[in-house]
Each structure stands twice: as structure tokens, then as C-alpha cells.
What we know:
By secondary structure, the protein is an alpha/beta fold. It has eight helices and nine strands. The radius of gyration is 18 Å and the shape is globular.
Amino acid sequence: MGKGLLFVVSGPSGTGKGTICxxxxxxxxxxLSVSMTTRKAxxxxxxxxxxxxxxxxxxxxxxxxxxxLEFAEVYGNYYGTPKKPVYDLxxxxxxxVLEIDIQGALRIKEVCPKAIFIFILPxxxxxxxxxxxxxxxxxxxxxxLRLGEAxxxxxYIDKYDYCVVNDEVDKAVEKIIAIMNAEHYRVxxxxxxxxxxxxxxx
Length: 202
Ligand code: 5GP
């Protein structure tokens, strides 16, 4: 990892992590990684902004070239985090946020153990059901499946550093910005060179 900090915002489907990450980019000096996916673009989505929409063959080529920091199959489509843009930004000292599913987050924990992991929880299962139903794009079976998966996914919360309940987007974003700011003041190896300088000044 370079000089910027890598944040992973993750949580079950429907918790609002996408909305939170969009707001984070507007309010904080952080770059959002654009994932590659084999899913078809929705009508309001722009290639290169929301995702890089690619064919299965293009995705597999990137897998073969070791171009992903992590990738996973989510609800029948592939999603991956392109490695180079993330490393380039971190090297430039820029903080980067990944908005990815839990499998991807666990993989990032293996390859970038210093990343900071934030789990987004819904205020309740009733609210989660409402949010997934409100999208209008999923059938009842799919909604039940997603809710069941959400409960299973919550079991991974102990792998994360922070947990934020998304009851109101603005408040959740404020809490995450506070976490991000605090992480910059964590005692790390860099501090020893500063202490060495103090000693030399004596
Ligand atoms: P959607 O298709 O609704 O945009 O995203 C479906 C799920 O895929 C969400 O949980 C989202 O966080 C996750 N996702 C998006 N990009 C990536 C990625 O690059 N890697 C992984 N592992 N999951 C991703």
C-alpha cells in the first residue's frame, strides 16, 4: 500500500452503501474506485462512471492478467476492483474508497491488511425489506433470498474495524468522515522518523 489510506465500505445488499459512497466523494477528499462488472448497465448508469461494463471474455482477460485487487461473483454477475488505479491513487497520497460486497472485502483483507473496513448496517430488517422492495426491480423470491443472505453476512461483522447504522444517509456519511479523519492520526511506523528528528534536534 502507498501513502493514501484505503477504506472498504461494505455490507449487505440494500443497506445504502452505494448512496453513502457517492455522498462521501462529494463531501470528503476521497476517490471512489470504479469497479468492472459483467452486469448489464441500468438505464441511469454511465460506463466508466458507475462501472466499467464489460463482457464475460473481457472480465476473464483482466482476471488472467492479474488486473484485479479482488473480484467476486455477486448475484450471477462478476464484479472486480481494478488494481492499478487504486495503487496509483494511494501512491499519490490520495485516500481511496471501495464499495464492494462482503466476499470482496474479505479478499481485500488478505491482500491489503492495512485497509480500514467499515460495515454498513440497516436500521432494521423491516427497513431493509422496504428498501429492497422499493427498488422495484426484484421479485418476491429474490427479496427473500437477499434478506436471508443479509442475515448471514452480518455474521462477518467481527472482521471489520467499524460499523455504521445507516438510519439517515447524511448522519451515516458524517460518521464515516469522522472515522476517516481519525484514521489519519493513528500511531503508525511513520511516527518513528518524526521522533528520530526530535532526538536529533536535542
Ligand atoms: P449492483 O449490481 O447493485 O451495483 O451491485 C451488486 C453488489 O456488488 C453490491 O453489493 C456491490 O457493493 C457489489 N460490488 C460492486 N462492485 C464490486 C467489486 O468491484 N467487487 C466486489 N466484490 N463487489 C462489488
